[in-house]
Amino acid sequence: MKLSDYDIQFVKGVGEKKARLFNKLGVYSLENLLHYYPRKYLDQSKTVSVKNAPVDEMVSIRATMITPVKESRIRKGLTLYKCNFSDGETVIHVTIFNNEYAARALRTFDEYILYGKVERRFTDAVMSSPQIESVNTGLGIHPIYPATQSLNSKAIAKAVRNAFDKIGVVEDTLDDEIRKKYGLCTLDFALKEIHFPSCTENIEVARKRLVFEELLTLQLGLLLLKGKRNVRNNHIAKKDFSEEFYSLLSFEPTAAQKRCVGDCVSDIMSESNMNRLIQGDVGSGKTAVAGAVMYTMIRNGFQTAMMAPTEILAVQHYESFKRLFEGTDIRLALLTGSTKASEKRAIKCDLIDGNIDLIIGTHALIQNDVEFKNLGLVCTDEQHRFGVEQRANLAMKGDNPHLLVMSATPIPRTLGLIIYGELDISILDELPPNRQEIRTDYVDSSYHERIYKFIKKALDNGRQAYIVCPLVEDGESDLLSAEEYANSLSQGVFANYSLGLLHGRMKSKLKDEVMQKFSDGEIQILVSTTVIEVGVDVPNATVMLIENADRFGLSQLHQLRGRVGRGSEKSFCILVSDNQGEQTKERLGIMKSTSNGFKIAEYDLKTRGPGDFFGKRQHGLPNLKIADMVEDIQTLNTCRVCAEELLKADSRLDSHPVLCDKINEMFKRTDY
Ligand code: ADP
Ligand code: MG
User: Fold this and answer.
1) Are the C-beta atoms of 330 and 357 separated by less than 8 Å?
2) Does residue 97 have its Cβ closer than 6 Å to ligand 1?
3) Distance CA 15, CA 557 (A)
4) What is the predicted pLDDT for the residue at 411?
């Protein structure tokens, strides 16, 4: 039986009730249990003598109990148990509080390991409430598992031991040749040593193997996914209509835009399906690229769907494509969470009947009951919000449509390979002409007066401004802070201007209204939490003020900043922070000195780690259990190469069944 099919409840000592507690930790099978790794270890492999024990440090002492336990009731609810131990040289007095069970278990003249801190009172050595274990089981390095109150670390360790007893030797996923080539120990050794290390050195050896295995599995999974997507193109575009699309635009596309469109068009005209990511900095004009590809598909007789992560963005795309396609016969529709039920029904019918060429929407679009007549292309915008899973769901729609994904989050190349492992990448690395550099400054809050004055001047000149609210700390309410802040501004400095508020908890309909008003120029200042981060386009907005700038990741600041500088007017971004730390100064200094999103992302990666990219699980990758995307980046690259080699030799991994199981297990949540 496969380890992944063996239910945890049948492991000796677990049973139905405990199994449920294991389930809560994400452990359902033997396989899960073996990969439920210790968080850290308790090293009791080395003992010290009482005499040599350092003060105030946790130590293990090997000692024999020399006097029976004496019980004394101090007061109601507090009972002390006292007894003496000797390490053969020195006596140590041990006190146990309230734990009758532990005290009763001790036997005079038995040898134990006492783990705790040695205190010295006059000439006596004392230990309060040490962890006491029999010398048979107490010595060694003990695993500490992430546990819960009802399922403690020891119980988990016991289950793991029983699991090993049952399995015997764990079957290896890698053959000897690969193991030798990459200097890896066997899986059996790695698993046993990671749970119950025989020495500290072995933990590293084990970890190396398990990290490799995990990252190799990840890479193989993504590459297989890419291969699966690499299906025969049954939505072949016969003719390229991008030039015709360009003639609808009010501007000339940049060379980079044309190149990216070219990549896509040759994909959709080729023998196999398109799976492409367009990665371009904010404002680089990704919408037009998508437009050209969608237009070409539509003109070739296929339906096209475009998905945005937020309602505001979906509406904005819809509005701008409606305008663009005004004089054409292209039929488009908008489908979001707040589309009225009756309208939704009508749209769904039209989609099945083929009366809609272009549907734009939020993930309401990937719901099961939305069907198409001949969906040829799915385009997702601001892709970092969609996980691999959603990407996969989308691709399942229709009959293997082409997939075009757009991301404005510049991601360092190494990370891009992982997150978008299954996609081909085109980089949109040129901004449209006449785009002015955005001037970025950072100041402390004593500059508020001056900043407000500056904003007023811009407004008086007919421009608009964004003010990004202070980012709230955990527990504070962003709603309150945003509302309070907006109120104080609209009653104070900006009393004579029209001001709008946008925050995450507003109903999407209201959000749209506010955004629309800002877009129409009815609202001059948009006070907002970070909901504007994603892709909203108002070229007349030229000033952005960001409060508490130090609390944001640089990539996020960069995204925010990208909301201005979209027209031909000079634009400004003012970062306010009272944080005087050197790191803050350096980080905000980077924002000032460069507008290159890729550079900023690299810096973020180096200084803050990949949290901003991998945090919040926005990437939608499977959860990793042992590998660390920063520390193990080297291994990741090695695994990429190894995965490619393996697949080259055996494209479906037929000769690696155990590895296949691992891949299926890792990508289980997504049925590709
Ligand atoms: P993003 O890549 O951030 O999605 P958009 O597609 O929203 O950028 O484009 C930003 C702005 O630049 C839009 O107002 C768009 O009309 C404009 N734009 C796009 N391409 C060009 C171009 N080649 N020349 C001039 N303006 C352009
Ligand atoms: Mg965009």
Assistant:
1) yes
2) no
3) 51
4) 74
Q: Ligand 2 centre and the CA of 16: distance in Å?
A: 51
Strand partners, 423: none
Question: Long-range contact list for 177-182, CB < 8 A, 24+ apart?
Answer: 178/642, 178/646, 182/212, 182/638, 182/642
CA-angle at 224, arms to 220 and 226, nearest 5°: 120
**224, 651 in Cβ contact below 8 A?**
no
Per-residue model confidence (pLDDT) at position 439: 95
Say if CB 624 and CB 218 are below 8 A apart: yes
Closest CA to 393 of 454, 278, 508, 305: 305
Please give the Cα distance from 280 to 289 (Å, whole number). Answer: 11
Distance CA 70, CA 100 (A): 11
Task: Please return the burial class of 564, using the count of CB atoms within 10 Å of its CB with bins 0-12, 13-18 and 19+.
Answer: buried
Pocket flag, ligand 1, residue 567 (CB < 6 Å): no
Least confident of 86-100, 139-153, 194-208, 226-240: 226-240
Task: Say whether pLDDT at 582 is over 50.
Answer: yes
pTM exceeds 0.85, yes or no: no
Quick: pLDDT tens for 328-386. Answer: 999 999 998 889 999 999 999 999 999 999 999 987 777 767 889 999 999 988 655 55
The angle at the Cα of 475, spanning 472 to 477, to the nearest 5 degrees, equals: 55
pLDDT for residue 611: 57
Name the residue of 318, 436, 566, 568 to mutate for ligand 1: max ligand atoms within 8 A of Cβ: 566
The span from the CA of 651 to the CA of 234, in Å, is: 22
